[in-house]
Specification:
Elements lengths: L2 H9 L2 H19 L2 H13 L4 H22 L1 H9 L21 H6 L15 E5 L7 E5 L1 H17 L11 E4 L15 E4 L4 E4 L9 H11 L3 E4 L1 H14 L7 E5 L5 H11 L2 E7 L6 E4 L6 E3 L4 E6 L12 E7 L10 E7 L14 E2 L4 E2 L4 E2 L5 E2 L1 H4 L9 E10 L2 E8 L5 H15 L4 E6 L14 E3 L6
Parallel strand pairs: 3-5, 3-6, 6-7, 7-8, 18-21, 19-20
Antiparallel strand pairs: 1-2, 4-5, 8-9, 9-10, 10-14, 11-12, 12-13, 13-15, 16-17, 18-19
The structure holds zinc ion (ZN).
Zinc ion binds next to loops.
Length: 468
């Protein structure tokens, strides 16, 4: 929504806000679900059954066209290729990609103007913002091809989850980062209706013990087939159901944008009596990956972009080894991002999915690089490892781990009924067992946990630069 739209929205009464949301969605609809979307949607329905080699051939063909386009019409790449004495014909396929230097976030920021393709007219250029897990926002440019492909990939994800994402699709309850309800509001409704897309948008910022019963009353009225949101938020809802001894059956739960921990998946599936379908996407639109109905890893949407897992020099690591995720968008002609370095780490899997789709498998992106703890002895600890000490403790409402320096870790904790000093001892002992005795673990009781302005919750916050 533009600034004027936001001002009007904030001034309007609830019914007016519902109307604005629905009308705005109708406008977005044309952009998102237009001709390009339909073309890509049909393509993706076909290509998911291609063999891996056929998919690689598709990627290579798209890549050659993209490199030529970038060299001929994007000043940044023309200069970069010329400086490196690189010609478009040197890149015959993705195996030649390591010849192209990596593109960092800082470079995109510094050379934003030069990264636009000169043949894409101003009116076709769109911009989007990424809140950035590092807290430094970034603006990226894209066009209707990138938007069409992004929604086609999301549409396929919904299809794999047994649901339909469209104007005449399933009823969807969304709990994401949109501030749709003023933060200071104390009384319901903590949601708004988007009639155009059959969506109930619930606020992620008003989830509290007092408010959760009315959230579920509204959900019961709306009867969604799908709940779509951050894992941490869906977990809060599932936890509430558990405390009430209740379930709320759905067809699917869809998660994204944060690390999905096993304990979150298990409780969400138990309480909503459905499977969780996780997907990974970036505002930069270079990589998209998602789980199919077999849940054997994330399929890389190979038609969407080329994903690489590389070491610090930009060389691909072997299959199964972790590295930095780097992506090249295949359909963004307005601002091609070639070998864009994400903040995320993952690894490719050697195994194939039993669904027999040719799209290769990637591990969950469980480890945002900056969420890792780097210790004094250089060890880098994955957040998933730290979840274990918390697992047996049902009496914790919420927790967050903050690393202050290489030797100090603070656990912020919202205690629940039955929490005692013995539980604190257990946590300190178990965390020390994982971090080492030269790390001081301190448990601090708090009333609530902070969310970032985007509404995203980070379970682990480290103030120590990543050691790898
Ligand atoms: Zn599969």
């Amino acid at each position: 929504m533009n600034r004027l739209g936001s001002v009007l929205y904030n001034l309007a009464p609830v019914w007016g806000q519902n109307l604005i949301l629905s009308g705005y969605s109708l406008l977005l609809d044309r952009e998102r679900y237009g001709e390009r979307f339909r073309g890509f949607r049909d393509l993706l329905a076909k290509t998911e059954w291609y063999s891996e080699n056929e998919l690689i051939a598709y990627q290579d063909e798209q890549l050659r066209a993209l490199i030529k386009h970038a060299y001929e019409t994007v000043p940044f790449y023309r200069r970069r290729f010329d400086e490196g004495k690189l010609k478009p014909s040197d890149i015959r396929g993705q195996h030649d990609l390591p010849k192209v230097p990596l593109l960092t976030r800082d470079e995109v920021r510094a050379h934003f103007g030069e990264l636009w393709s000169t043949i894409v007219p101003q009116r076709s250029r769109k911009t989007g913002h990424t809140s950035g897990t590092t807290g430094t926002p970034l603006t990226v440019g894209y066009d209707d091809g990138a938007i069409g492909m992004a929604y086609a990939a999301l549409d396929r994800h919904y299809r794999w989850a047994g649901c339909r994402l469209a104007r005449d699709g399933d009823r969807i309850a969304v709990v994401r980062g949109n501030v749709i309800v003023p933060l200071h509001q104390k009384k319901p409704p903590f949601w708004r209706l988007n009639r155009c897309h059959n969506q109930l948008l619930l606020s992620s910022f008003h989830l509290s013990k007092q408010n959760l019963p009315v959230y579920f009353e509204e959900l019961a009225r709306f009867k969604p087939a799908v709940l779509d949101g951050y894992p941490s938020t869906l977990y809060v809802l599932a936890k509430f159901l558990q405390s009430q001894g209740q379930t709320f059956p759905l067809r699917a739960a869809i998660t994204s944008s944060e690390t999905l921990y096993d304990f979150q998946r298990a409780l969400i599936e138990e309480r909503f009596q459905c499977r969780v379908f996780d997907y990974y996407a970036l505002a930069e639109r270079v990589v998209f990956s998602n789980e199919c109905e077999r849940h054997e890893g994330h399929h890389v949407a190979m038609e969407y972009g080329i994903a690489e897992v590389v070491d610090e020099k930009g060389w691909p690591v072997s299959i199964g080894s972790p590295g930095r995720l780097v992506g090249t968008s295949l359909h963004n002609k307005a601002m091609p991002l070639i070998r864009y370095v994400t903040n995320d780490m993952t690894s490719f899997r050697a195994s194939r999915c039993s669904c027999s789709r040719g799209l290769r498998l990637m591990d969950d992106v469980t480890t945002k690089a900056e969420d890792m703890l780097t210790l004094k002895d250089g060890r880098v600890i994955s957040p998933s490892v730290l979840t274990h000490p918390f697992k047996p403790l049902d009496c914790i409402e919420g927790s967050q781990i903050v690393q202050i320096d290489p030797q100090t870790v603070i656990v912020r904790l919202v205690p629940g009924a039955g929490y005692t000093e013995a539980h604190t001892k257990h946590l300190v002992t178990e965390l020390t067992a994982r971090l080492g005795t030269d790390v001081t673990v301190e448990v601090q009781m708090v009333d609530s946990l902070e969310r970032k302005a985007s509404g995203k919750f980070k379970w682990v916050i480290s103030h120590v630069p990543l050691g790898i």
